[in-house]
Amino acid sequence: MLVITWEMLFKFLNDTQPEEMEALRKIYKEDLEATIVSFINAEVTKARGSLLDVLKHGIEMSNMKLELMYTKPATTFNRELLAKYEKNIFSVMEEVWASDNERIDLVIFLNGLAIMSFELKCNAAGQSYQDAIYQYRVDRNPKTRLFWFKAGCLVNYAMDLEQVYMTTKLSGNSTFFLPFNMGNGEGVYAGAGNPTYQDKYSVSYMWEDILKKDTVLDLISKFVFIETKESKDELTGKTKKSENIIFPRYHQLDVIRRLLADVRENGTTQNYLIQHSAGSGKTNSIAWLAHRLTSLHDTNNKIIFDNIIIVTDRVVVDRQLQKAIMGMEHKAGLIRVMDDKCNSADLAIALNGNTKIIATTIQKFPYIVDSVADLKKKRFAVIIDEAHSSTAGKDMAAVTMSLGAGDQELGDVEDMITDEIRRNGKQANVSIFAFTATPKPTTIQLFGRLNTKGQREAFHIYSMKQAIEEGFILDVLQNYTTYNTFYQINKEIEEDPRCRTTDAKRQIARFVELHEVNIAQRVEVIVEHFRTTVMPELGGMAKAMVITTSRQGAVKYRQAFEDYTKKKGYTDIKALVAFSGKVKLPDDEKEYTEASINGFPEDRLTKVFDTDEYQVLLVANKYQTGFDQPKLCAMYVLKKLKGVSAVQTLSRLNRICPPFEKKTFVLDFVNSYEDIKSAFAPYYTTTLLSNSVTPTAIYDLEAQIDAYTVLDPDDIEKANNLLYKLNISSKDKQKLTFYFKRSKNMIEAYDLLKQHEIVAMMRHFVRFYDFLLQVSCFEDTDLHKKYNFITYLLAYINIQHPGGGYNLDGKIKATNFVQKKTEEHIKSDLVAQPVLKLPTAESFGLTEAKEERLSQIIAEINSRTGKAYDNDIAVKAMLQIRDILMKSDKLKTSAKNNTVKDFEFSYFDDIDEALIEGLEQNQDFFSLLLSNDEIKRQVLGIFTEEIYRSLRNT
Prior knowledge:
With 954 residues, this protein is an alpha/beta fold. The protein contains 38 helices and 27 strands.
């Protein structure tokens, strides 16, 4: 039960505080050491106590203060404190027995107190960080003293030679693991994981930097804090508190350290742009930065900033910020929040006073331009949250004007103008730190820093790609579809004899093509799609947003919405509107406002929309940025969206909603795939699934999974019977886990490569089926049962994965299967049989480089021929040809006996035969290739080497 190593603890205490120890020894004599250890143990294990607290603030015994850790002084003046800081003792112990049956690979101690535990795995031995995560979740007891929340280790690392994950709280199977990786790649293209090096391990940053004495002490004293959240139970009125130890993720630690180093070097001469995606933990990053800047000294030991001003776009300044900063340091008067009750005079007094951190809203700044004088003698750090929204306008100019106000001599008009320009630029006494996920060109121009290519760029980036890959936000483009595609898919399903559907879902399928802006028709599409497909999500709590073109549009759509739901007798779907100001409709004298339509004041909208009473929010230029509502699952777009506005609007859906496995859906009536792709391109690149979706492909995927024989049809049936029960007992849960374990064992009977293939195929099936359910009237009971089973099976396999782990309770509650009774499904007469079919773009696809080359060729063909061939059609066509060529015995012989250059001759000879064979499947495109040798060689030359290698190796 090793949590304190006595030898190290008392060496530290005797070396750093000999007088205090001597005085205490007189009181406690030979019992002193046992008394101190018992006292520390009692302090860290009591309800409000923690190891972090005693490390930061020490303990008090018999009116004697004992420090258990010394932090680095802000200046070099205090040599005694510096000497004590150097006397902190770090020790490492291997194979530590935490209890009789729990042996930990590595534990790090600070002054004899256990602060970090490690489970280490070696990839070369066939293990990974996932096995370490599994160990922490399954083999480690959260009640063991070493792992006791707040009293045991501050952080527990699961680590192999490639990746690092961490948790600050063990809670069995549902222990949540966060990544502690650097990210892999450059700028917006950086994804999850770590870089690969030729001469060192990918995780070498751990021992080269993170586990160095200075870093660990910096983390404990300046970063790690205990966050307390309060939630009120609506029924009982009781307030429930929950606590978490907040430990920075790698990018958070990295950005703060880089900023501080740069400011220490450059003082107030620079501005900084921090491009951090949603899901980056921005509130904590801002709190850490503000807190550190308050005590930052330059190389001459002079304080750099007198005041730190946090500016947010929210009218009510986020209380989270205040709580986070107070969690780091309990100091009266450290932070002042200027809320709605404060006026500009209060703000001016605060700026002239001694409050170190002032949090305010951008709306308040214009008022103080005239009222603040002589601020040149003070130096300010201005931290702007979400810099894009207000920073390009007058409000932003007011920020720099007010903080640069000095005594002004009255001069001529020209002098005044030049002074105005000087003041509105970079002020010598002000550094601005702008945080945003999606910087506009103007923001980059204003705050960006020149790189070696002469372009301005962000000082630090945590990309949208990395946030998605690490599971902090959702990819909203995964299930993005235009109305045209939506219509085509449903038409196809209606005409496919294999597909059956329920009456409720038939509503979706019968929509006609929209030829004009027909409000009633669109409302019908939105309401029916939402009721049948979106509403059951998140245990029946899912919500949607409708993006209308104008305030008049919002009013008209709300009226049509009311008319339609009344006509159909729907009482389970209600809509609110959101727009600013007043509006009149043509031929209607009545004046409409958001409050008059909704029946309550504007400031209550977010709270009311969060309740179960309302499901849909119709907006006109409002709540399209900065609105966080995790229950938003669907968006219906009725207006043109461009650039940053498109990214910000669609990103309203990207918040995760634990414990639910949220799925997002966007139905766009106005924009094209290309519009949306190009809007996202500067921030994130992704493939749009619905571009190439075909309803029948789901059956092909099912057949491929069935061919592995890892799913027992009897288990699928029994598991679904249990999942649809009204009350699932613990015995039922055991049975379910047994079924999933049986399938997992069957998967593990295959070699490792095949296992990955099977799991990837299952994930593909789930994603594909999810999309199909959302976009269409598709319904097949047997397939749905298989989908249910595979979804749970993947969660069971995922117990080794980072994130929230395997929690059957949460999952059953989250999926809310009770809503769909089995007898409501129409029994399908479909008998699934494995199909032999040409490969489709959805299943195989091309590499990114090949796809890019192909799009260039297709664009060339289109401009040359006046046609409008679609990329995806071309991809499918090529995959069909590839499949035909792969079966050619003549080519196989040629590949085995020739170089790739010589192979090309027979390859291009055989292409014509392949084109004729595939002609009936894609007449137009194949005819073009047959009639034009140059285009044929250009398009199909892409595959020569791949086919040559494949045939040569068969």
